[in-house]
Give the backbone structure.
Amino acid sequence: MLPKFNNPLLLETALTHRSALNERVSSALESNERLEFLGDAVLELITTEFLFAEFPDEPEGILTAYRSSLVKTTTLSEVALEIGLGEKLHMSKGEEATGGRNNPGLLADTTEAIIGAIYLDQGYEATQEFLEENLFNKFAKIKEQKLYQDSKSVLQEIVQSKGFEAPIYKVTKEEGPDHDKQFTIEVLVNSKPAGTGMGKSKQLAQQAAAQAALKELANT
């Protein structure tokens, strides 16, 4: 859950998507993009510190894979949904009509903005506590299911073991300005849609799509 803010305007800003500014549905004077920029850096530092202390015998490469699994879009969007950020977001009617409240990329960005806002409002330790309560508690499952592994490689191994051709990745949507692109990619397994992912680059979106396909295969 979200902590109580000393400065409510910071929380309001963290929950304001850029599309909301033109329609004045938020009292914030700017969107959450600057807070997202700060939150991304704070998230990486605290996550790195957590993993460094938790796994003193793991090499740098494994720790990097662990960290990537925690800070990627799919994991952060899960956090956003669990603490109700989608419902609280200020956005334009058009953004909402196109599924903005459930958009994984948008939700992940909002989670980073919230992290930045908590850091500014309450400091490092409070931000650490928020992440321990809402994000780091997911790592046991990630490690158990080996979700930290390269999802595309794992999917390809599974698919080829079934005698199918390699998965095919297709860009189905590309939106946003050049400096803040958002890609949606669908992966096809045996010529059938198997998973969809979103990310700020095609590579990240492919990884998210592969992970979604792995989850789907695990349930069949």
